[in-house]
Design a protein that fits this description.
- By secondary structure, the chain is of the alpha+beta class.
- 26% of the residues lie in helices and 42% in strands.
- The chain has a domain of 161 residues.
Amino acid sequence: MDQALAEPQRRSGRFWLYTPFVILILVAIAWSAAWFYIRNRAVEALDGWLAVEARAGRQWTCQDQRVGGYPFNIELSCASLNLKQGAITGTLGGFRSVAQVYQPRFIITEIDGPLQMTDGVATLRGTWDLLQSSVHGTPNGLQRASVVAENPSVTISGLGPADLTSSSQHLELHLRPSPARAQGNSQNGNSQNGSTPTGAQAGPQAGAYDVALSTRQTKIPVLDALVGGGEATDIQFDGTVTQAAGFRGRPVAEELERWRNAGGKLDVLMLSLAKGTRRVEAKGEIGLDALHRPAGQLSVSAAGLDGLLGNVVGGRAGGALLGALFGGGRQAQGQADAPRLVTLPPLFLANGKLAMGPFVIPNVTLPPLY
């Protein structure tokens, strides 16, 4: 009888001995099923996006497409990526996108070069040592996106007798829906009987986006010819683009025309260029006029450009006056030995011309962008 009682106790003890392993196996099976479900959803989303792009006339080809990353990531990679849209063709070395299973709306992508795009007339070529992007999404859409590049270089040929080139040591670009514009739009909508005004869109002001761009040791030969000196330039830009929600990847001319008709503007909160001892800071607003030319007004402060200012106004009395202004001004922040920044007359972009105060800058025209 004692033996009969001991037998169930041994079986019960063995059950609890193996229970953790059984639970671990069940969790692994459930996790694997969830991973394959998310993987299939990702592939379906990609195929759906490619179908939408094809209906819009853009044919994307992903060579050697692979989806992996089990067990914790979803990884999508292409050995090369090709684009065909009408006369426009583009090629990219390839890319690898990674999202964690438990955070699928945070996607990190590493992009290989080189990049080449052409419309049969102009050709853009780009190279870099490292190019990474990250996208943070929410159920309501984009939260923020960033691009970081090391030693990027861009060459545009076919637009003139000489190629346009630019290269940098480091570049960063950040984009997010503008919370300030969203708040302001919400307040405006609530101010009229608690409803949104007719024609206004909810959320960020018809899709206002904050943009922050910074580059280090940027070489732009066109800027060297204009400002003088061969030093590299450090650039900082902070601004807001309004009416940007309608961008859908259409041809550039169509996108810009939609943006112009919607009253889109580029609010320049701060544009700073530092080139050796030369410094320029600007704030203002820029849009497009009826002939598709840049139009707007900028408040400008500068240092070290006295010789240039005398030249751009044709050596007239105004040029001497502007040059004389560089004898004083406010010190550049954080640079005790830097030339003082001097507030200049407003810079106007109007009717295809560039004017500083009452002086139209000779030999400078603002052509239509499209």
